[in-house]
Specification:
30% helix, 19% strand, four-stranded mixed β-sheet, globular, alpha/beta, single chain
């Protein structure tokens, strides 16, 4: 059996946001969308044309049905999502503007995801046709039981030879069950091949300090020697890890950020360009966009980590420009930015950097469907009646998803 599926595990929630940057007490309306770190990664990968699947637990009600429809509309697999518990987790977000910071209120206690216990998910069946497993520290922060499920999943993935990636994703407001992140996460990270995190996350969870990233514009030069020293310390602590990634961001104002990143592998530190984003629309999910871009790049070019890093940083930069938790860009658009196209000019007829013969898109991505497929009401179309879609949300047998040849070669997953 060919194994080219990427599995992500974590909670997906309903986000409620006041419109027009209003505060909670100013509005009688809330915008809603679904999102969650691992779901955001799965959606990005599906948009890039890879086969992704989210594993989580949802209640058996119409809100959860809408959540499933949303995931399937992007081509994300949902075959192994459990139904149980009473409620979908919620989070309310007051968006940042100028000098005002954002404010998040979680309402996820006793959510369906919180009811998960070890032994409920058949990891052997789930991973049988998979090559990559991705999880994050958020899933382990919800409860001691979900942390145990993470450990169970990582162990199963390790036994079955999958590449395992981890985003530290430290959220201080979630660690409330008597254990600290620095107690729970490092033992799980020991079994991972790829580690991803921000400077403050590596410091909080591992006690490893990174140089300050103080970029005010794109001309900034990061302290590569300092990042290399920190990366070597991470690799020393986790001998199994073969790739260590630092996501770098400097928040100048709520609407003006600079971002960059480094990647350490095979004894060498790589860095990418600094992006100066002076009109941030929504920074939720930017780290997830970075992670998904890296996974996509490493899957397609395991021997070209610089290209993967450049693609991940470009994906992160683009996510800042769209509202909601999901990144909404194709591989062609991300690759165009990674290649230097930052003019913001109108692209007519096809995506920037996309060959004319591919202008209609690549099968499997919500953002790039063939017109004739839309007319037929294929899987993944928002306009398709729900009953006409298979539960998995996949494209069906005999129609493998491939990366666009002009951007990245068909995915060849690294050998563990």
């Amino acid at each position: 059996m060919k194994r080219e599926k990427i599995v992500t595990f974590g909670e997906i929630m309903l986000r409620l946001t006041p419109p027009d940057k209003l505060r909670f007490n100013q509005t009688d309306l809330l915008r809603v969308n679904f999102g969650g770190s691992e779901a955001n990664v799965a959606v990005s990968l599906a948009n890039y044309g890879l086969r992704s699947e989210l594993v989580t637990c949802l209640p058996d009600n119409r809100i959860a049905d809408a959540c499933l429809d949303d995931l399937r509309s992007y081509g994300v697999g949902t075959d192994h999502i459990l139904r149980g518990g009473d409620r979908l987790g919620l989070y309310y977000m007051e968006e940042a503007v100028a000098m005002r910071t954002s404010h998040v209120v979680y309402d996820r206690a006793a959510s369906s995801f919180d009811t998960l216990r070890p032994g409920q998910i058949d990891w052997a069946e789930l991973f049988a046709d998979a090559d990559w497993f991705h999880w994050s520290g958020i899933a382990a922060a919800v409860s001691a039981e979900t942390a145990a499920v993470c450990a169970e999943a990582v162990a199963a993935a390790r036994r079955m030879g999958l590449t395992v990636s981890c985003d530290i994703n430290y959220r201080k407001n979630l660690w409330r069950y008597g254990k600290r992140a620095e107690e729970v996460l490092p033992p799980l990270m020991e079994a991972c091949d790829i580690l991803f995190g921000t400077d403050d996350e590596y410091e909080k969870v591992l006690g490893i300090c990174l140089p300050a990233f103080t970029a005010c514009d794109a001309s900034y030069t990061p302290d590569t020697a300092g990042y290399e020293a920190a990366a070597r310390e991470v690799m020393r602590r986790f001998p199994r890890c073969r790739t260590c990634v630092f996501a770098l961001r400097n928040v100048l104002t709520a609407n003006h950020h600079t971002i960059s990143g480094t990647l350490f592998t095979d004894g060498k530190l790589l860095r990418t360009r600094v992006y100066d984003i002076d009109a941030v629309v929504d920074c939720v999910g930017v780290g997830d966009a970075f992670v998904a871009g890296l996974i996509y790049g490493l899957a397609a070019h395991p021997d070209k980590p610089q290209q993967a890093l450049d693609f991940g940083a470009a994906a992160c930069a683009l996510k800042n420009t769209v509202p909601g938790d999901y990144n909404q860009f194709t591989a062609e658009e991300v690759a165009a930015l990674a290649g230097g196209a930052v003019s913001g000019r109108i692209a007519r007829g096809r995506h920037p950097g996309q060959p004319e013969q591919q202008a209609a898109g690549t099968a499997g991505s919500r953002n790039s469907r063939q017109p004739e497929q839309q007319a037929a009401g294929t899987t993944g179309s928002r306009g398709t009646d729900r009953q006409s879609r298979p539960d998995s949300g996949r494209l069906g047998p005999g129609r493998p998803i491939r990366c666009p040849d002009s951007i990245l070669a068909p995915a060849r997953f690294p050998t563990v």
